[in-house]
């Protein structure tokens, strides 16, 4: 089954102007809202619908991708009606659905607004969007912590509210359901998994207590005039991804851009990825727990070395990063997701957090830590060898 009928019916039951859809992972929020918007655009001539998210990359991987999938699966998609550059689909009756981020066309007006994963869009931007929307407003989010939906909207008389969970998504495979429900058992012994199950399993409000990093500044591109630029790498294969993050330092601020976040990469695959990225002879600082991989990549011609580890190296590396304003290129979706979720361990008996992070949500962050620690502190390094880089 492709369309999430249960989620759609529950969302359709919301009748007030502002519709808040809170829910856990794989609850069918987006696949519940988009078919409703498509149906509205098909039936009502000259309807103007805006779908908004925190960034264009986030839209392309999320709501826009799902919209196109739904349109094609229901045989409604007409190629000539879709402007890929402006991300606008125009229906034969004069209606359209457009996709943009707040910085794009915030001042435009519309009939219907949908803010996808709205907890990552500022209240200022959302308020500006709402006062330029004549009819209905849809908002969805994972309830990882309280934000303006609770403090600003819930008190309004024209608000309907609903909670969806993975159980409202009849299109979900048994394998995904099993993976989600594993967190229920893990929650008995881990504060991280207890919070995860509450938020993503049950769709209930979570907490940001114990989060390692407080915030970051999203930017559109990596500056080319940094004081220094280097790369951090963390190895993975089957379950964990291999990651590569470009790191730079400019005017006392750190700049980060995710370049690789993939599973199943062999060392030969990694080398090919590096070639396509034009890394050249730049420093690559990698996880020293993989000396064989580092040596193989070095013999392929890459200027790669292992990160120096030791007592308190993780805490010291994180503290170093936290000294600076951090800017993350907005295409770095996996890095951004980790940044928001990376948390400290919790001691239930003592009711306090350790000064030690959970070993989860850290694949890209570890790459950042290896690189920034190497570039910003004096450390011994593994010996390099002179080789001719393979072309």
Which descriptors apply to this entry?
391 residues, alpha/beta, Rossmann fold, Nucleotidyltransferase, domain 5, eight-stranded mixed sheet, seven-stranded mixed sheet, 14 helices, 34% helix, globular
What is the secondary structure topology, with strand pairs?
Blueprint: H1 5-12, E1 18-23, H2 29-43, E2 48-52, H3 56-61, H4 63-73, E3 82-83, E4 88-90, E5 96-100, H5 102-105, E6 110-115, H6 123-130, E7 133-141, H7 148-153, E8 159-164, H8 174-186, H9 191-201, E9 217-219, E10 228-234, E11 242-250, E12 253-262, H10 267-276, E13 284-286, H11 291-299, E14 304-306, H12 313-322, E15 325-329, H13 333-341, E16 344-347, E17 352-357, H14 363-376
Low-confidence stretches: 380-391
The CATH top-level class label of the largest domain: Alpha Beta
Strand order of the largest sheet: 3-4-5-2-6-7-1-8
User: End-to-end span in angstroms?
Assistant: 48 Å
Range of helix content: 25-40%
The name CATH uses for the topology of the largest domain is Rossmann fold
Please name the fourth-level CATH homologous superfamily of the largest domain: P-loop containing nucleotide triphosphate hydrolases
Strand content: 15-25%
């Amino acid at each position: 089954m492709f369309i999430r009928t249960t989620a759609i019916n529950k969302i359709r039951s919301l009748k007030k102007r502002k519709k808040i859809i809170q829910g856990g992972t794989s609850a069918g929020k987006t696949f519940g809202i988009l078919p409703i918007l498509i149906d509205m655009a098909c039936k009502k001539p000259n309807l103007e619908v805006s779908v908004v998210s925190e960034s264009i990359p986030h839209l392309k991987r999320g709501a826009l991708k799902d919209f196109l999938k739904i349109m094609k699966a229901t045989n409604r998609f007409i190629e000539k009606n879709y402007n890929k550059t402006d991300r606008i689909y125009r229906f034969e009756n004069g209606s359209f659905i457009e996709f943009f981020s707040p910085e794009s066309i915030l001042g435009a007006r519309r009939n219907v607004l949908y803010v996808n994963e709205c907890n990552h869009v500022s209240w200022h931007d959302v308020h500006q969007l709402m006062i330029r929307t004549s009819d209905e407003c849809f908002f969805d989010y994972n309830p990882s912590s309280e934000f303006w939906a609770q403090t600003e909207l819930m008190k309004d008389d024209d608000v309907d509210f609903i909670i969806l969970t993975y159980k409202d998504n009849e299109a979900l495979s048994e394998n995904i359901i099993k993976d989600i429900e594993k967190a229920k058992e893990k929650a008995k012994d881990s504060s991280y998994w207890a919070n995860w199950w509450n938020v993503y399993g049950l769709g209930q409000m979570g907490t940001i207590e114990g989060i390692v990093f407080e915030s970051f500044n999203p930017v559109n591109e990596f500056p080319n005039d940094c004081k220094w630029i280097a790369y951090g790498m963390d190895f993975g294969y089957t379950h964990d991804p291999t990651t590569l993050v470009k790191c730079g330092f400019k005017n006392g601020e750190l700049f980060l851009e995710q370049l690789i976040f993939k599973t199943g990469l062999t060392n030969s695959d990694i080398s090919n990825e590096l070639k396509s990225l034009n890394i050249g002879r730049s420093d690559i600082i990698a996880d020293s727990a993989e000396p064989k991989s580092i040596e193989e990549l070095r013999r392929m011609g890459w200027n790669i070395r292992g990160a120096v580890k030791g007592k308190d190296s993780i805490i010291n590396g994180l503290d170093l990063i936290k000294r600076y304003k951090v800017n993350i290129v907005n295409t770095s979706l996996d890095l951004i997701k980790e940044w928001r979720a990376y948390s400290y361990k919790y001691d239930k008996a003592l009711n306090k957090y350790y000064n030690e992070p959970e070993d989860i949500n850290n694949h890209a962050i570890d790459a950042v830590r290896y690189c920034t620690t190497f570039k910003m502190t004096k450390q011994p390094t593994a010996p390099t060898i002179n080789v001719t880089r393979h072309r």
